[in-house]
Design goal:
mainly alpha; two-stranded antiparallel ribbon; elongated
Length: about 550
């Protein structure tokens, strides 16, 4: 082989090796399954074809194409060598034909017994016995040479065909081996993904108990998977098993080989567990450590801000929400601004408690800019204005507060009435209550306002209570009491009704609109961290303007 042929062969082998490495990496990156449709003969031998669908792994499908491309590449690499071998064989055949034609033939026999045969030529003298047929009569040598050439070509083509078949079988074996090598270790991973998909489906359906059982089974099979234990801990906290959730989080955090992102998730989960137990200081410590490991984590910043709010560290909470607003995506920045508004409102109330009404006034104005539709912020504004002696501002703020937080209307109207009695502003406050009562639809707000407005305008209070009496026991009881208190008693109200009107009724049950957790008493902030989320259960029915029994257009 010439030097050029050696260089060509070396470069070709290097390219094949690089192609093999590329093939292994590419097959390893393709882990999905694809659907293949085949038309197959029917089982009843009918002339029609049946359409069948099969799931094929993408790596195995690509391996077939790679084997085909490899065979074509090998054939292309061998093409120059085959051309050169054919040329050499043709040249040698021609040389042999020329040598045979130039060799003198044997002289014919004399026919006499006593005559000796003439001398043999040099070629005949040294020719082997087996090749004597090649030096036969005239033109006999040409036919022999042609036959030998045809036989050599036939043998060469047979050997090449066998080589191609062997290469195809070897490529198919290599492809099958690669597919098995990639698929066999991942079969368990595919099964794990199937189990996790089942868990996600059950979680979406709200079947928390089955999700917990499935996670426990996965944890037994995969004890080294920290994500399973983190998910199980979060689910335990949701089910009220906070101590077990804390133990799981601390077990995960005790691992020295835990990935940084999983350590951050474990610290955040532990901080939320501590918040659920009311241990705000420890929660702040865990979340601060998580922030130090992931300073740009939006979820961690949100948990830290909520922990600081629950701990009463309003200034640090406002700073955390401000940082959250800078890092959060555009669709969540409004939530960050509202959270910062609540924190600033908390700062204003803290300044008012410390005896600095000027600072409190500036802070509450800033809070209103950040969260203009918050009952908590308007309540802070009313308290700051009342402390500063701003009567009109306080009246407007109280009205906005009970309209934006109807679930706490009973508490807010009582506080506003106490302030009005001290300031002698009962008439102005009653006018505000009457204005709100005309458009109110929340049963808790109507019941609280009607109790005060009935002293001035019982008819308006009765109309408002009748509007919501069908869904609110408190409003129905207030309406009965109001009718009993008006003039002569209605003959239609029997003694049992009057006895029922004298009894106290249980206040409406309050729940969090965000997490649906029950609230023992009204508060602007739920334990889940949501602000202004308290709502009466009886107000979770039809929307405003929709009467029960009437279909929506």
């Amino acid at each position: 082989m010439s030097l050029l042929g050696k260089v060509y062969l070396l470069v070709s082998l290097i390219l094949l090796a690089l192609g093999l490495v590329w093939t292994i990496v590419t097959l390893g990156a393709n882990t999905g399954w694809v659907e293949v449709v085949l038309y197959l003969p029917a089982a009843d031998l009918s002339p029609s074809l049946v359409r069948r669908r099969f799931e094929v792994h993408s790596a195995a499908l690509m391996a077939g194409w790679v084997v085909t491309a490899a065979l074509l590449a090998v054939a292309a690499i061998r093409a120059p060598f085959r051309i050169r071998s054919a040329a050499i064989a043709q040249r040698r055949t021609r040389e042999l034909e020329r040598e045979v034609l130039e060799t003198p033939h044997l002289a014919p026999a004399t026919g006499g017994r006593g005559r000796a045969a003439g001398p043999r030529g040099p070629s005949q003298r040294h020719a082997p016995a087996g090749d004597a047929r090649r030096v036969g009569p005239e033109h006999g040598g040409d036919a022999s040479v042609a036959g030998l050439a045809d036989e050599a070509r036939r043998r060469r083509w047979v050997s090449e065909l066998l080589a191609i078949v062997a290469a195809a079988l070897a490529g198919g074996g290599i492809g099958a081996a690669l597919a098995w090598w990639r698929l066999a270790p991942r079969r368990e991973a595919i099964e794990r993904l199937a189990r996790r998909g089942h868990v996600i489906h059950e979680l979406a359906e709200g079947d928390v108990e089955n999700v917990a059982e499935e996670l426990e089974r996965i944890a037994e099979v995969e004890p080294n998977d920290a994500t399973v234990f983190l998910a199980l801990a979060a689910l335990d906290r949701r089910r009220g098993r906070v101590e077990r959730a804390k133990a799981l989080h601390r077990t995960v955090l005790a691992s020295a080989e835990l990935a940084p992102e999983l350590r951050v998730a474990g610290l955040v989960g532990l901080g939320r567990d501590l918040l659920a137990q009311g241990n705000e200081q420890a929660a702040v410590g865990a979340l601060t450590r998580a922030i130090s490991l992931a300073p740009r984590s939006v979820a961690t910043l949100e948990s830290l801000a909520q922990a600081l709010e629950q701990a009463g560290a309003w200034e640090r909470a406002a700073a955390a929400w401000e940082r959250h607003e800078k890092l959060a995506p555009a669709r969540r920045r409004r939530q960050s601004r509202i959270g910062r508004g609540h924190a600033v409102a908390g700062q204003a109330l803290a300044a008012l408690h410390e005896g600095d009404p000027f600072k409190a006034r500036k802070l509450v104005e800033r809070a209103l800019e950040l969260a203009p539709d918050s009952g908590h912020v308007w309540t802070a504004r009313a308290r700051v204005a009342a402390a500063a002696g701003a009567r009109e501002e306080a009246l407007e703020a109280w009205q906005r507060a009970w309209e934006l937080a109807p679930a706490g209307a009973q508490v807010l109207t009582a506080e506003a009435w106490s302030w009005a009695m001290e300031e002698g502003a009962q008439d102005e406050l009653l006018e505000r209550m009457q204005a709100s009562l005309r458009t109110a639809n929340a049963s808790s707000l109507v019941a609280a306002l009607a109790e005060r407005v009935a002293r001035r305008d019982p008819d308006q209070a009765a109309l408002a209570l009748a509007r919501v009496a069908s869904r609110s026991p408190a409003a129905a009881l207030g309406l009965i009491r109001l009718r009993l208190a008006q003039g002569p008693r209605d003959a239609t109200l029997d003694a049992s009704v009057r006895d029922a009107a004298m009894k106290d009724i249980t206040p409406p049950m309050l729940v969090c609109r965000q997490c649906a957790a029950p609230m023992a008493r009204f508060g602007f902030r739920c334990s889940c961290g949501a602000w202004d989320s308290a709502v009466a259960v009886e107000d979770l029915g039809p929307r405003r303007g929709h009467e029960p029994g009437r279909s929506r257009p």
